[in-house]
Write a structure and sequence with these properties.
heterodimer, A: about 260 residues, Rossmann fold, 2 domains, nine-stranded mixed sheet, about 25% helix, B: about 375 residues, alpha+beta, four-stranded mixed sheet, about 15% strand, globular
Chain lengths: ~260, ~375
C-alpha cells in the first residue's frame, strides 16, 4: 500500500519558557516531531511493511521545520521519503489552513491508498486536522483508530470506544487518525540514522500547491498565557500522630479536597 | 574548533536514551544490582538496537562508527545505566583485538555473536602474582600436535564465567624478555579444564568477576590470535581505547549522580528554604559541574585525537587518571548532598559511588597511569 503519514513538527514542550508576564517564549525551543505523530509514523511503516508498500511522511510549517536534523529524525523512523510544505504563512496556521495545505500536497503527490494522522498535534491538540483532510479529499474518514489490518483493497480497523470496540471495514483510499496505543514507535538505529540522510526530500511552498493567498487561518489567536503558578504553602504539621492527622484533615477539608 | 556533535550523533544519543528508559529503567537496574545479576535483557535490547554492533564492520552484523560516537554511547550508557556502560566499555578492547588480529573465522563467529548480544569476550591477563606488572604472567601454552594445552590461573577476569570466550594471555618462560614471549588465544569458556570462581566485590554487582583455574585446557592451534609471542604489543594496541571508554562511562555516572544531587538541592527544604539556597550547597554543585565539564572536554578531546590518528600515549593515561578521580569525587559529593538518603540503597547515587570507585583501580590503576604519563612528559621536556 502507498501510505502517506502526516506529522506535525512543533517546539519541544520541555523547552517552553514562561516569561514574568505569563507569556510564553518559544525562541530557544528545539523543534521536534509531535509525540502523538510518532505512533502514526510507526503504524504507517508497519502497514507498508505488511503490504510491501511505501511510506511518505508529509509535514507543513514555517522555516523551522526545514531543519536537517528533523528531516533525518523523521526519515530514520522508517518512511521512504519526505515531503515538506514550508511557508511562513503556516507559522500561525489553524486546523483549517493546515488541512487545506496537507490535502493540496496529497493531491499533488498523486494521492495514496491511506493517509494516516496522529490523534492530535503536540502543541494545539485540536484533533481535527486528519478529519478535515479526509473531508477535503472526499475519502472515508475515521478517528480514534487503535488497530489497522490491511485487506484486499480495504482496511479492517478497530475503534476503541468507551464501552465497546467497533470493528469496521473501510474502502480505500481512506484518511485515518490513530490513537497513541495503536503501537509503540521504534527507535532508530545508527544505520537507519545514517541512511536517513540519503532518502529523498521534496520541499514545496504554498505557491507550489497553488494555495498562495488562497488559504488563510480562520481563527485568530489573541494571546497565549501560562496558568498562574501559586507558590507552595509549605505547611509543616508537627504534632502527635492523631492530632497531626486531624489538623491535616482540617486543612484538606478547608481546601475542598476531602 | 567545533565542540558540537553531528546531527547523527545527537539522534543516536536521543534514541539510546529512549531505549534505556524503556529497557533499563532505574527500578530494573536497582533490582538487578540487589540480585547481583547480569543485565541480560537490557543487553539484548542494546544488541537489537544496533548499539552493540557499533564499530564492528557490516559484514559481521555491525555498523561502522568513529571513536567519538562510541565515546558518546559510553557516556550515555554510563549516565542512565552505568553497568551497561561498564560492560560495553570492557567489550571494546576485545572486539578491537579480534578485529585487528583475529582470523576471518574468529571474526565471523565471535564478532557476529557480540553484535547480536553475546556478553563481551573476557580478557584474561591478570594473575595472582601479575597485576599492574601484567607481563609477569605465568599461564603456559604448550603445543601438542594440532592442539595447544593451557595451564595456569587468572585473577580478576571480569565476565569470564558468563562469556562465550576468553582472550587468554600466556607466556613462554623460555624467552627471557617477557614482552617477547606473550601470546594471545581465543579460548571457549566451555572448554574442559576451565573452572570459574566468582570474586565478591564492593561494587560492579551486575558485572561478575572471576578467578579462573586453567588445567590442561585444549584448543586447536588455529585459536592463536595474531602472531605467536606478539601478544604483548597486540594487547597494548587497544588499551588506550578501553581506558577512554571506561572514562566516558565514568563521566556519565558522575553526571547521573550530579543530576540527582542538583534536583535534591532544589527540592529538599531545611530551615524553611530549599538547601540549594545555601551557599555551601551551591559551591558544591558548581564544583561538581566544573569537574563534569572538564571530564567531558577531556574524553572528547582524546576521542577526537584518536579519530584523527594522533598518538595519545600519555594523554589517554592523564585523562583516565583525572576522570577516575574526578568522577568519584563528584559521586561522593552527590552522596554528601543527599545526606542520609544518599547512603541508603533507595537512591542510585550509592550504586554509582560503589561502582565508580573501581575506576581508580581497574583498566590500569592511578599509579600506573602516572607511570605511563610521567616518563613521556619528561621525555618531551628534554627535547
Amino acid at each position: 500500500m502507498d501510505v502517506i503519514v502526516c506529522a506535525k513538527l512543533a517546539p519541544d514542550p520541555e523547552d517552553i519558557q514562561v516569561k514574568s508576564d505569563g507569556s510564553i517564549s518559544l525562541e530557544n525551543a528545539e523543534w521536534v516531531i509531535g509525540s502523538f505523530d510518532l505512533q502514526a509514523i510507526e503504524a504507517a511503516v508497519r502497514l507498508a511493511e505488511a503490504t510491501a508498500g511505501k511510506v511518505t511522511v508529509l509535514t507543513a510549517g514555517p522555516h523551522q521545520v526545514n531543519n536537517s536534523k528533523l528531516k533525518k529524525d523523521l526519515l530514520s523512523r522508517g518512511p521512504h521519503a519526505l515531503v515538506m510544505v514550508v511557508d511562513e504563512a503556516l507559522a500561525s496556521a489553524d486546523t483549517a489552513l493546515t488541512a487545506a495545505v496537507l490535502a493540496g500536497a496529497i493531491r499533488k503527490m498523486g494521492g495514496a491508498d491511506v493517509a494516516l494522522f496522529g490523534e492530535g498535534s503536540a502543541d494545539l491538540y485540536f484533533q481535527q486536522t486528519g478529519l478535515q483532510v479526509g473531508e477535503r479529499l472526499g475519502w472515508p474518514t475515521l478517528n480514534a483508530v487503535s488497530r489497522i489490518e490491511p485487506q484486499e483493497n480495504s482496511l479492517l480497523i478497530e475503534r476503541n470506544l468507551e464501552e465497546e470496540i467497533e470493528v469496521l471495514q473501510v474502502p480505500l483510499p481512506a484518511a485515518i487518525s490513530v490513537t497513541v496505543d495503536i503501537t509503540t514507535p521504534r527507535l532508530p538505529t545508527m544505520m537507519e540514522i545514517l541512511k536517513a540522510g540519503q532518502k529523498p526530500v521534496t520541499v514545496w511552498t504554498l505557491a507550489d500547491l497553488g494555495l498562495e493567498g488562497q488559504a488563510a487561518a480562520k481563527i485568530a489567536t489573541l494571546s497565549v498565557r501560562a496558568p498562574q503558578q501559586v507558590a507552595r504553602k509549605r505547611i509543616l504539621i508537627e504534632d502527635a500522630p492523631e492530632e497531626a492527622a486531624q489538623t491535616l484533615a482540617a486543612y484538606l477539608s478547608k481546601e475542598g479536597l476531602v | 574548533m567545533d565542540f558540537g556533535f553531528t546531527e547523527e550523533q545527537e539522534l543516536l544519543a536521543h534514541s539510546l536514551e529512549e531505549l534505556l528508559q524503556r529497557e533499563a529503567p532505574e527500578s530494573l537496574l536497582a533490582e538487578l544490582d540487589a540480585r547481583h545479576e547480569f543485565p541480560y535483557k537490557p543487553w539484548k535490547a542494546l544488541a537489537e538496537q544496533g548499539i552493540l554492533g557499533l564499530g564492528i564492520p557490516e559484514k559481521y552484523g555491525g555498523t561502522p562508527a568513529d571513536i567519538q560516537t562510541m565515546t558518546l554511547v559510553c557516556e550515555t550508557l554510563g549516565k542512565h545505566a552505568f553497568p551497561l556502560g561498564i560492560i560495553y566499555s570492557l567489550g571494546m578492547i576485545t572486539i578491537l583485538d579480534i578485529l585487528q588480529f583475529g582470523s576471518e573465522e574468529m571474526k565471523m563467529e565471535v564478532l557476529t555473536g557480540l553484535a547480536q548480544g553475546d556478553p563481551p569476550v573476557a580478557l584474561g591477563i591478570t594473575e595472582p602474582q601479575a597485576g599492574s606488572d601484567a607481563a609477569a604472567l605465568k599461564a603456559t601454552a604448550d603445543f601438542d600436535g594440532d592442539e595447544v594445552v593451557f595451564n595456569g590461573q587468572k585473577m580478576f577476569c571480569t565476565l569470564a564465567g558468563i562469556s562465550k570466550h576468553i582472550l587468554l594471555m600466556t607466556r613462554d618462560a623460555r624467552i627471557e624478555n617477557p614482552y617477547e614471549g606473550i601470546s594471545m588465544w581465543l579460548v571457549p569458556t566451555d572448554a574442559p579444564g576451565l573452572r570459574f570462581s566468582q570474586v565478591s566485590k564492593v561494587g560492579w554487582w551486575t558485572v561478575p568477576t572471576y578467578e579462573v583455574f586453567i588445567q590442561n585446557v585444549r584448543v586447536p592451534r588455529k585459536n592463536l590470535v595474531g602472531e605467536l609471542n606478539r601478544g604483548w604489543p597486540q594487547l597494548m594496541a587497544n588499551f588506550e581505547i578501553e581506558r577512554l571508554a571506561l572514562s566516558a562511562a565514568s563521566v556519565g555516572a558522575a553526571e547521573g549522580a550530579y543530576e540527582e544531587a542538583a534536583a535534591y538541592a532544589n527540592q529538599r527544604v531545611q530551615f524553611g528554604q530549599p538547601i540549594g539556597a545555601f551557599q555551601a550547597v551551591q559551591h558544591k554543585i558548581v564544583d561538581m559541574a566544573v569537574k563534569i565539564e572538564n571530564m567531558r572536554n577531556y574524553i572528547y578531546k582524546i576521542a577526537w585525537m584518536m579519530d584523527h590518528h594522533m598518538p595519545v600515549r600519555h594523554e589517554h593515561a592523564m585523562c583516565k587518571l583525572y576522570v577516575a578521580q574526578a568522577a568519584f569525587e563528584v559521586t561522593d559529593d552527590a552522596m554528601q548532598l543527599l545526606g542520609g538518603l544518599g547512603y541508603t540503597t533507595e537512591n542510585r547515587v550509592q550504586r554509582h559511588w560503589r561502582d565508580v570507585r573501581l575506576m581508580r583501580i581497574g583498566g590500569g590503576t592511578d599509579e600506573i597511569m602516572y607511570n605511563i604519563a610521567g616518563p613521556q612528559l619528561l621525555k618531551r621536556a628534554r627535547k
